[in-house]
Amino acid sequence: MFKKILIANRGEIACRIIRACKEMGIKTVAVHSDVDRDCLHVKFADEAICIGPAPATESYLNIPSIMAAAEISGADAIHPGYGFLAENTYFAEVCHACGLHFIGPSKESIEQMGDKIAAISLMKKAGVPVVPGSDGAIDAQDPKIASLAKKIGYPVIIKATAGGGGKGMRIVHVEDELKDAIMLAQSEAKANFSNDEVYMEKYIEEPRHIEFQILGDKFGNVAYLPERDCSIQRRHQKLLEESPSPFINPKLRKTMGRAARKAAKAVNYVTVGTVEFLVDKKGNFYFMEMNTRIQVEHPVTEVITGLDLVKEQIKLASGYKLSVHSDRIKILGHAIECRINAEDPDANFIPSPGLLGTTYFPGGPGVRVDTHVFSGYTIPPYYDSLIAKIIVLSPDRDDAISRMSRALKEVETQNIKTTAPLHIKIMENEEFKSGVVTTDFLQKYIYKTQE
Ligand code: ADP
Q1: Which residue out of 87, 169, 276, 443 has the highest number of ligand 1 atoms within 8 Å of its CB and is therefore the one to mutate?
Q2: Do 31 and 56 share a domain, yes or no?
Q3: Contacts with 317 (C-beta within 8 Å, 6 or more apart), sequence order
Q4: 409 within some domain
Q5: Nearest atom, ligand 1, residue 131 CA
Q6: 152: how many CB neighbours lie within 10 A of its CB?
Q7: How many domains does the chain have?
Q8: 228, 234, 261, 293: which is the annotated catalytic residue?
Q9: How many A from CA of 357 to the centre of ligand 1?
Q10: Residue 293 annotated among the catalytic residues of the structure
Q11: Which of 157, 182, 202 is the last residue of a domain?
Q12: 330-355 pLDDT per residue, tens
């Protein structure tokens, strides 16, 4: 087992990882930018090292600085959390070259799943269903592009091969819009990912985003856990997650879980990861992508299974044999997670950084809060706007919704706008209560627009 782990991240996930390490008797090293000096992850860790100025490119993405901090502190492993360097193959490689363990899958697995076109073709070969699409990169000037779109069938979606965070996507309903949409998606992809390669697939209408947490060891064993339904999104970014999905029955759970396992095995996956699928109205499912990291929404799965996924991840990275068995997992109830972002939902989700006045989060039976903020904390404008995750566990979905609604009403973040009021609206929405949630839920039932 590792003796000292450096956490190359900040915010709630850095605190979450430090907590797991402490319970495992592992020493921790926090790294931070100069504006994050007073952050909770810095206070919680055994040691803390400043790795640069506020902009992430100069601190949390600064590989030489992070490696120097690992060297100085004598860490034997690095946990990248999510975001920042978590899916950066070069970083995984540098860790390895410096004799440090990267707490994540191999560089090869990250690479194979990081390029969406390559991942889709690999999944096809492995027998995992994929969305019908272009079989590779496309170009607006290709004379056959219109006939390809017609063959796939409108509406189609143009996606960035290096995509993430819902960026670089364009839905196209008619041929007239096709060329412009491809060019726009290409320029958005170039701006966001320095890679303008895009591909095309069938746009699945009113889909559900269903994903499976998987765990793999170095001996080739892979387990899958019950699904998370992440259909409540804004601009293709998740806002709320729940488990189990109100749409998935035990038979479909097993079929999809096995497909997720097949996907993970195809890339010899070690540690924790997530296989994402789109599910249409009839229950047909299609592989979308695999995230090769611990995800924001992992607590939903933790509370319904009783597992600690960060501890499992650390154990698997250090070479332990998988101790989780999919068929022996019991679903302990119904869980919901709401992401509390410092953004104003009434002003087009504009970020709301600044000094937090009186701040408190909910508690009581069945409520877990993962956060790094507190009264008097200043939310810096440099990083993502997630300030807390509220997770509830209840015996059933109705109870989980009432519990979440109660918990959200206890949130106080003086001076700072958050997404909590939006989540209250969702909890009180009749369609949400009835379980009819798809990825267009927000536009359809909350904002009533065609965004
Ligand atoms: P990212 O890596 O940017 O998160 P994903 O491929 O995971 O991108 O897709 C994010 C979201 O975009 C999905 O959850 C879904 O809402 C929407 N989406 C992506 N592909 C399709 C598709 N073929 N049909 C319908 N919706 C899609």
Answers
A1: 169
A2: yes
A3: 2, 77, 101, 102, 103, 104, 270, 271
A4: yes
A5: 23
A6: 18
A7: 3
A8: 293
A9: 37
A10: yes
A11: 202
A12: 999 999 999 999 999 999 999 999 99
